[in-house]
Amino acid sequence: MARSLPLRISLIITAISAALTLIILLVSSFLIGELNLNQLNHLPLNRLAMLAVAFLVLLPPVFILSRILAGRLLRPLQTLTEKTRSYSTDGSPVSFLLDSDDEFAELGQALQEMQENLSDSHAKLELMAFRDPLTGLSNRRGLHQELSKLILWARQQESRIALLYIDLDHFKQINDSSSHAYGDQILREIAQRLLQVVKQQTRHSQLPFPEELLLSRPGGDQFIIMLPDIGQVEQAGQLSHHIIEAIQQPFQVSDRYFKLSCSIGITLYPDDANSAERMLKHADIAMYEAKRSGRNRSRYFLPAMHRQVEERVMIQQGISTAIAENQLYIEYQPIVHMKKKRVVGAEALLRWHHPKRGRLGPETFIPIIEESDQIGALTVWIIETVAAELRQLPSQKEPSKLSINISSAILNKPELAQQVNDALLRVDAPDHRICLEITETSLMKDIDNTLPLLLRWKDAGYSIWIDDFGTGYSSLSYLARLPIDGVKIDRSFIRDFDNSKPVIEAIIALADTMNLLTVSEGVEQAEQQQSLLRLGCDFAQGYLYSEPLSISLLTDKLEQQLLRESRQTLKFKPRSKTKLPF
Question: Residues in domain GGDEF (predicted)?
Fold first, then answer.
């Protein structure tokens, strides 16, 4: 409370008191001197002096009494002011209640209620800042806070911590097929299951903090468990096994049942990292390795994984630059008609000449790019490049065809499928001279959504082939519905020809029955070629015929073939021998 307020009140009271005192003195003088009103303006000087002296004598006591009165009146307000200044949301509560029954007591009651409301609001804000509203677990910010505290505690105790990064497999399908309400209910149930697993794992441990702080949900379908004071590394593996078992139990929401799995990455303090940030990063890397290994499993962090992640980031970030700076190019592996011994087409194989790492094969970067949406832009570039290079091939009676591989990652994402579809409809490709190769597994994954797309491509003039045929689980009923022109027998069967001969024979017989062409991949030996011919396969590709060629070398090869065929069609008649004139 400002110190001038009591002074101002005292001066006001003093001024009022002085005015009243002066009036009283004048009235008293009038009564004592028996003066009338007309004589009031003609008082003797001695009488005026007496009045002035009396006024000045009375003024100080009146002022002092006013100060005392103002201080007593404002003392409750001063008390409330001091308590308000000492109040802090982070400190101890302050009581604003007063032992009185006046307006100041009402003000104190209002301040008390305001303090309680502020405390509740502060608690709610803190909960929002550090807690996940869906599960009540620590969120990402709370996780960093608790993990940092746990690392400090472990450093003091000279103990080890395991961090388990849990990511649900294909959880998005639940939200897409049902609703987010179903997904939220399952996430809440998962939080309870994981909390029970944590409590079971730490039941014999003497921890200075509640088990709830060891489990957090940083966001989405991810959970993190901190396992402190572990004596052996195997304890983290045991915990991950219990987690996988708990997640695999069916979830019931209303009248529906759902099954899930999870991938887990494990890292250790201080073995792998000595800070919260690095532990989370390493556990995340290990979790992605678990997904790459087939999901529904756990993986410990290894330093080699970090290098793999760096390589993956380099490739994902560099592919746009590679397209823009012409670092990408295409080689074509010829496809041969075995009986006629002539090239009838070629498969387009993507290559990358990296400015620092040199030539990169597709097995190095294609799987990484398929994990991102960049596979759409890359496939569009391949389509446009193949369509342009197709025009460089020589004209023949039976025109050569070029085939393009369409990634399953495109078929599974409608926005990418539309991007590629627009490119296929936009390029000016000769009719049926571009073939689209799609793996059997990707076709069968979601046949009902893929079929309309294939029909559009077929109507646009593209041939469609099933790649790696025999490695998936095609149903004959589905196979009959597909607008396909042929199948390519996977190279794994050709490599192990003796054991795979019944399968190869069945594939060729099925193709003949359905009036489909067959191409055998990976033919490298003359014996393989002869066996395939005996089984009825007409087309093949592999190093027996040619390695992948640049478009210029493929053009030269086709021109040489055309020249040979033109020579064979010429019929030479032998000249009759004539006698010399002499």
Answer: 159-303
Q: How far is Cα 470 from Cα 490, in angstroms, rounded to an integer?
A: 7
Q: Which two tokens stand for residue 23?
A: 């009036």
At a CB cut-off of 8 Å and minimum separation 6, what does 273 contact? 267, 279, 281, 282
**Residue 268 in 3-state DSSP?**
strand
What's the structural domain count of the chain?
2
Q: Which of these, 283, 274, 240, 264, lies nearest to 150 by C-alpha position?
A: 274
The per-residue pLDDT for range 265-275, each reduced to its tens digit, is 999 999 998 89
Please report the pLDDT score of residue 578 as a whole number: 38
Q: Is residue 44 part of a domain?
A: no
User: Residues 441, 471: contact at Cβ < 8 Å?
Assistant: yes
Query: How far lies 144's CA from each of 140, 152, 401, in Å?
Result: 6, 12, 57
Q: Which of 248, 269, 301 is the last residue of a domain?
A: 301
Residue 78: both structure tokens together: 């001063």
Q: Is 567 exposed, middle or buried (0-12, 13-18, 19+ CB in 10 A)?
A: exposed
CB-based contacts of 322: which residues, under 8 Å, 6+ apart? 328, 352, 354
What number of residues does the chain have?
A: 582
CA distances from 353 to 222, 360, 561 (A): 37, 6, 30
Q: What phi and psi, each to the nearest 5 degrees, are found at residue 403?
A: -115, 145
